[in-house]
Amino acid sequence: MPFPRNQWYVAAYGEEVGDGLLARTICGEPILFYRTAAGRVAALSDRCVHRRYPLSEGSRDGDTVVCGYHGFTYAPDGRCVAVPGQARIPRTARIPVYPVVEQDTLVWVWIGDANAADPAAVPRAPWLASPDWTTVRGMEPLAARYELLVDNLMDLSHETYLHGGYIGTPEVAQTPITTEVDEKAGVVYVSRRMTDAECPPFYARSTGIEGRIDRWQDIEYHPPCLYLLHSRIAPTGVAPGPDGDDSRACHAEIVYAITPETETSTHDFWMVSRDFARDDEEVSAFLAESNRTVVLQDVRALDLLERVIATEPEGYQELSINIDTGGLAARRLLKRMIETP
Amino acid sequence: MTATRLRVEWTPGSDVLTGVCHCGAVRHAEDPVEIWALLLDHPEHAKDSP
Question: Where are the domains of chain B?
């Protein structure tokens, strides 16, 4: 299955895009990112119109980019403004530009028909930019198709097996699960609320909560790119108040941006935001290291799976069981997006 | 549940998935492919609702 076009994808963290030239391939399209003097993110095709040399190998001249091969020079809107050795600029000397939205510290790029890009359709993760939350994050290259990461994240029962000792506990695989699909909004929700559960090391060390916990995992997947896991951890029996006050609980927002690089590779952006121990640098370092370890456990498994898929004959018939209810819902919405872009 | 939501409930350990359509129809199946197919059969499935 290829990737949905006419969609927004996370291309980078805001801090990755600056004065330098950032090259990143999104959905098979090589794109050059940089920040103009006015602070806006420019996203241009990373290929010079002349001989296709990657512009990211060139240099900046103010807000323009100079090709490192022959000096073709481009403005942020894709227009060629100078060619070497002649005054006339060919009429076709223009490279594609991509609509960009920078929101919630993420740089989103639109892949598809630029006229169809609606900035209001970019899904939100406001805590990433909120002073009331502390975030650690990273990005790991995945040598596997994005669908495998979607499958992985939609079924958290794999935590018990692939991530035992980090985020998995026996209750994860034993708690009722509700899966909902909002057909109109195109969002999948998977909810699992554990009571009187063992506290996994990931949260025991970071929250300081001792003993058994109530642990909520509420997934919200906005296909194709944004995956949110709203996580609530509280001493067992501590519920939100009737007025909605939930200040006795700890909250973590686990975000993944699942951005296809090619048909068989993916940018695996991961973020962990928390509303507890916000200024504790040890907790930040611990959560960053732990989550990266968990992500790398997934990366290793999914890279292996991609190699298996690459060598198998066409038409392999997978088996889906009850734990795959959410993953199948996500697949269906992705398929719908591909068929009706 | 809003008008466009489909819901499937499952308790690990049980073989049965319970699907609830936005129209209120409730269906059961032992296979996730089957339960989604039953829910997506709206409005046809409403005709034989209990």
Answer: 7-48
Q: Which of A157, A176, A181 sits opposite B9 (nearest CB)?
A: A176
The C-alpha angle with vertex B13 and arms to A168 and B4, in degrees rounded to 5, equals 85
Selection from A179, A174, A175, A199 nearest residue A191 by Cα: A179
Q: Cβ contact (<8 Å) for A178 and B35?
A: no
- Whether the CB of A183 is below 8 Å from some CB of chain B: the reply is yes
Please tell me if residue B33 touches chain A, with a CB cutoff of 8 Å: yes
pLDDT at residue A34 is higher than 90: yes
The conformation of residue A78, written as its DSSP 8-state character, comes to S
Q: What are the tens digits of pLDDT across the range A283-317?
A: 999 999 999 999 999 999 999 999 999 999 988 88
pTM value is: 0.94
The answer to whether A69 touches A53, Cβ cutoff 8 Å, is yes
Indicate the fold that domain A7-121 takes in CATH: Rieske Iron-sulfur Protein (2.102.10)
Choose among A326, A330, A323: nearest CA to A172: A323
Q: Is the Cβ–Cβ distance between A108 and A8 less than 8 Å?
A: yes
Q: Which residues 6+ apart lie within 8 Å of A106 measured at CB?
A: A10, A12, A13, A14, A125, A128, A257
Q: Are A223 and A8 in contact (CB under 8 A)?
A: no
Task: Place domain A126-339 in its CATH homologous superfamily.
Answer: Naphthalene 1,2-dioxygenase Alpha Subunit; Chain A, domain 1 (3.90.380.10)
CA distance B36 to B43: 14
Q: What is the C-alpha to C-alpha distance for residues A255 and A272, in angstroms, rounded to an integer?
A: 6
In this structure, what DSSP letter does residue A330 have? H
Residues A191-217: what's their mean pLDDT? 89
- Dihedral sign, CA of B29, B35, B41, B43? positive
ipTM for the whole complex: 0.92
Please report which residue ranges of A194-247 form alpha helices under DSSP H: 201-207
Q: B3 phi and psi, to 5 degrees?
A: -70, -15
Check CB contact of B43 with chain A, cutoff 8 Å.
no
Q: What is the CA radius of gyration of chain A?
A: 22
Domain extents in chain A:
7-121, 126-339
